[in-house]
Design goal:
The protein has 14 helices and four strands. It is an all-alpha fold and 337 residues long.
């Protein structure tokens, strides 16, 4: 095991051996990739991913899939929460499932055939009126991660995402959902929605930098500046009412709700983890760790998914993994203490 570097020195204990335990192979696989820089082709990463495909939560989710590619019932896949097609696919992506799996590929093909609206966005009902940033961004991220970026329908979805942010040549506004540029959302009273911004940017972040068009780069710039415009530890983004308490409940997996840590995650993916405007957010994440350098799952969807990922408010390998990845990006080799 390498000597602790800055981000690990900032913790109350070293969670890495716990994250690398073989009893949770999906976490082990991503910890090897994200925290130890193991290439996906390395023997250790390949063994961990293969084991993860045979274990929960991935195995039970795939076992529930219909042979045609959907979950629960045919159609756009938004219902039921959180076992329908779109939720199952995005949670499999978050768990690091193997893109080469046949069930994964059938699911991607099914979503593209049944969930994509005529304008290119992914909708709750498969129509333009049901396209919102949070669902679209989650599915775009999953589809790109599962190897479908070169599919023309995914390219169209990327175009929809970018133009809906910049407003350039976009005519798909709808009062109920995507009501204007810059993440304006009808569900949020027409105000810019930070949850939607985070999900949209997570979708665009999966596109390799060399394949990002000028339009996509403009959309990313708008989104990054919007998220950086507020203190993530306060999260007073525009809202119809008070700040949702879910902002401050670190959880896994992630549906349409975004927490403070996911705000930091997506900004880190774009290279902004060390931005001084995120200092309070980093400190707030550090303050949530326990004495062993672990975090609890405060929003676990415990009884809602095909199989519980974790128990609510229990020490969480998934949330700890997320936190460590952000802290590593933010703190690097120099301790903050």
């Amino acid at each position: 095991m390498p000597a602790p570097d800055g981000w690990r020195q900032a913790l109350n204990g070293d969670p890495l051996p716990w994250l690398l335990e073989e009893e949770a192979p999906a976490v082990r696989h991503l910890a090897l990739r994200w925290l130890l820089d193991e290439p996906e082709s390395s023997p250790a990463a390949r063994r961990a991913r293969a084991a993860a495909m045979r274990a929960d939560p991935i195995a039970s989710t795939l076992a529930a899939q219909h042979p045609d590619g959907y979950w629960v019932k045919p159609g756009s896949g938004y219902g039921p929460k959180y076992t329908g097609t779109v939720w199952s696919l995005m949670f499999l992506d978050q768990a690091g499932a193997d893109p080469g799996d046949r069930g994964i590929q059938r699911a991607c093909a099914y979503v593209l055939a049944h969930t994509q609206a005529p304008g290119g966005g992914f909708g709750m009902s498969g129509t333009n009126s049901g396209v919102v940033h949070c669902l679209h961004g989650n599915l775009l991220r999953a589809l790109v991660g599962f190897g479908w970026l070169d599919d023309e329908r995914v390219r169209t979805a990327v175009e929809w995402q970018a133009r809906s942010i910049t407003g350039d040549g976009f005519d798909g506004w709808h009062r109920w959902a995507t009501s204007g540029p810059g993440f304006s959302c009808g569900i949020n009273g027409g105000l810019p929605c930070a949850w939607g911004a985070i999900k949209a940017l997570r979708g665009l972040s999966r596109i390799p930098p060399e394949q990002r068009s000028p339009l996509v780069l403009r959309a990313i710039g708008i989104g990054v500046e919007f998220l950086l415009s507020r203190d993530p530890a306060v999260a007073d983004y525009p809202a119809q009412s008070r700040v949702s308490p879910n902002w401050f409940k670190l959880g896994f997996p992630s549906g349409y709700v975004a927490d403070m840590l996911q705000n930091l995650e997506v900004l880190a993916e774009f290279g902004h983890a060390g931005n001084p405007r995120l200092t309070n957010g980093i400190d707030a994440v550090l303050a949530k760790q326990d004495g062993a350098g672990r975090w609890k799952n405060e929003h676990a969807y415990e009884r809602a998914t095909w199989v519980p990922f974790e128990r609510t408010r229990s020490p969480s390998k998934w949330v700890t993994l997320r936190a460590c990845r952000v802290l590593r990006a933010a703190l690097g080799d120099s301790s903050r203490r």
